[in-house]
Amino acid sequence: MPRTSSARGESFALAGASWPDLHAGLRHHFPSAERLRRILPLLIAAFVALAATGLVTQIVHGKKVALQGAEVRLALFADLAAVRLEGQSLASSSNWQSALAASLPKGATGDGRIALLADAEGQIQARAPLDAQANGSLLTIIGPEQPLTTFGKDAGVLRLTLTDGTDAIVTVRDIANTDVQIAFLQPASVVLADWRGDARLEITILVCGALVLALLGGSLWYLPQGTARQDDSFAGEIIDALPGCGVWRWNLARGHVHWSAPMYRLLGKEPGEGAMAFAQIAGSLHPDDDLRGEIDRMLGQGEQVFDRSFRLRHADGHWLCLRLRGHITRAPQSGELYLTAMAMAVDQDLIPGSVDANARLRDAVETISEAFVLWDNQNRLVMCNSKYQQFHGLPEEVVRPGSAYDEIIASASEPIVRKRIAVEDKDDGDSRTYEAQLEDGRWLHINERRTRDGGYVSVGTDVTVLKESQQRLGESEQQLRASVTELRSSRRELEQQKQQLVDLAEKYALEKNRAEAANRAKSEFLANISHELRTPLNAVIGFSEVMQRALFGPLGHAKYQEYARDIHASGSFLLEVINDILDMSKIEAGRLSLDFDSVDVADIIEDSMKVVSQAAAERNITLGRHGPSRLMLEADRRAVKQVFLNLLANAVKFTRDGGSVDVHLSRTRGHVRIAIKDTGIGIPDADIAKLGRPFEQVENQFSKSHQGSGLGLAISRALVELHGGTLQIKSREGQGTTVTCTLPARAQTAESEAEAAAASEAQAATG
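RE: above sequence
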């Protein structure tokens, strides 16, 4: 394109230099920029290489310094601890840990350091800190092939791999005047932790710096090799680089406009030379577009960025839609305002005021679910949708573009607002957002804002469902908090109850131990006192029997004979009671041993019945035995006979005169069953549970006339259970009692039963 005249160059003067002068200056400096583009990558590469070399050297040196410093500190701690331990006697095992703790200087166990104190055999007797995982001997920790335990301080501080695979620095010191050694260990990972952090930081800085330099070099490399030439008519390379776009240079003070050649071609005109008056352009503007008015409004508001769409008439008569974008600047010397902008063709539907665009906008506004209204800067209605019309109850003839705000408000039926809540903390003059609750319970979220041309837009959204959800959520949150509070209270109560249970359990255990101790003391006392009483009691019984029989001559009076008989009877009864107490004490103390042998139960029953037969005959009580004549089982004969004697004696004792006592023998499923049934006074159901306890008796009018210690049935039950059997009592008051004794045919004690049950459970678990 041809160059423009000097007049156009003067109108686009910038800082006192014309466009050709500026272009010539750029060309003068162009060769140095080209050389810089070629040299810069080499300079960046050399700098990065030099920095990397220095970084590697710094990292290697830093690692060496870190290790040397750690070794020096470890040696100092070891020397000081060895001096403090010098001459101490460490023969007692209780002194090792305290001696080690007293010898360590402040900070000796910091930074992962471990101190170990070993005896003459190398076994570790103390460690610091106490939670250090170091057991066995020094050789099992440090390793047998190192020279530290042999040479001590002369070996210095070595970096070793411990037996557990840990990389550590280690030193050992021999304690003077003792056979004790102290060792200090510190993992290399702890020593090098700070060094690794510094190395990462330095590497990161180097990489980031290299990336920044590379980006700067790349940006310079990809710059164009020459500066685009410009002239005062917007011709040359810039015009050719912007096809389909027109450039405007508008002197707002003088009203002169310079167009580039593509701008002329957009309008179907031949490019002209020189500036044109804006009045010429205004004649081609669409009547609805006020470009100068927009400029004046921007200048009044202090805006500098211009972005507007407008229509210009094309050379063939149709309207061309353009979008002009640029900045308003002030010339440095003249101080005049210029609009430098670029114009490009756009779709006509994007131009405000076009019929199709307004139709599309109305359809879009109508389809939204919010109430929408737009007012212009004169408080006239621009548009609104049916939601807004329904909300305010507006008639159709009022809702038309251009209607005044006062006219519409006069025709509207305003809803009654019960509550208004500001959503934002502050309201400025251009926007406001709030929530309003209507009389019918609905909630609206209303957003009102100023438009750029001074108008006003308002959008109201029905948020009733959201508010109800928030309310339900708040209620649920409140209930949840109440539940949490209740749970915390329950937890505190449970913790208190738990503590009470713990206290009660401790008290129970204490009282149980006391009771067991008291019971043992009672049993031992009864056993001892029984032994002590039997000796003089045997003498009393023996002498009374001698006096009763008058072995050494008559007593001289009949009353003496009667007294001797009473003394013998009382002594015999007392001896039986003492024997029962002694047997019960042995059973409770676990000192009664059974001698199992094959015995005939039928024979034992016959002997026991003979013993009580005289007492039964005196009261005309019939004794009967039923069952096999021979019934063998493995048991202690003396204990079994004592059981049956006690049971038969009780049956005869509590049977009325003329009654009967029957004994039934039977065998069933490896057990022998002996049932002793009487027709005596019977036992109430409430008292059956008490029978079998030591010194427990069922008191009634009949039993008060009979003597007894209350130990017979308890001894019998204990002896039966020692044989692995059971004793069962069934009775009806006034009709009689049946005592059934079940014994295993083979010897089986309570201990053997427990062992058999445990063996069966173990077999079931493994099987």
